[in-house]
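Cross-posted from the bioinformatics board.
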Amino acid sequence: EAQVTQNPRYLITVTGKKLTVTCSQNMNHEYMSWYRQDPGLGLRQIYYSMNVEVTDKGDVPEGYKVSRKEKRNFPLILESPSPNQTSLYFCASSKRTRKFFGPGTRLTVL
Amino acid sequence: QQPVQSPQAVILREGEDAVINCSSSKALYSVHWYRQKHGEAPVFLMILLKGGEQKGHDKISASFNEKKQQSSLYLTASQLSYSGTYFCGTEYRDNYGQNFVFGPGTRLSVLP
């Protein structure tokens, strides 16, 4: 089954404690991206990757890092999380047209 | 540049029609439409790739006016299952390359 998986689905952490949210897709898509969703603001792109070893900043990249060492995986790294990064995060993959979204990760930073 | 969606929210009775609009200040290459139910991931509805194109499936259709940099989503004879938040996603190109931006969403509630 074609899918995008994310882990963990829920995470509560404290300010400054490094964390990684994993994202994996099984559709051999070249394009992958991370979004955060906050009430009234829609889906804002954090980072995207056009292919392996090619990543670029989206609209709200501050405080986040990504890597793309293999085609299927695109982890999101928060080196020093802060409360304003409390949000719902979605990973997505696509092959030029429609985007497939992962189930989401709800992150709370205390 | 985030597109503008209108209305922000709409409440309908089952069987009524609704139109959701999406407009951009940029010249658009494509427009996507997604629906998101509460607590779930957005789900793709359709993509419009060229000006004047209209697409639809079931009782949901969309149009793309390239000249006006606008797209509209039409929901006819709405069903309870249509409830959710609808997002348009717009693709445009500038000096920095290809960009894709979602609108802020339109919350649709269909009541029995």
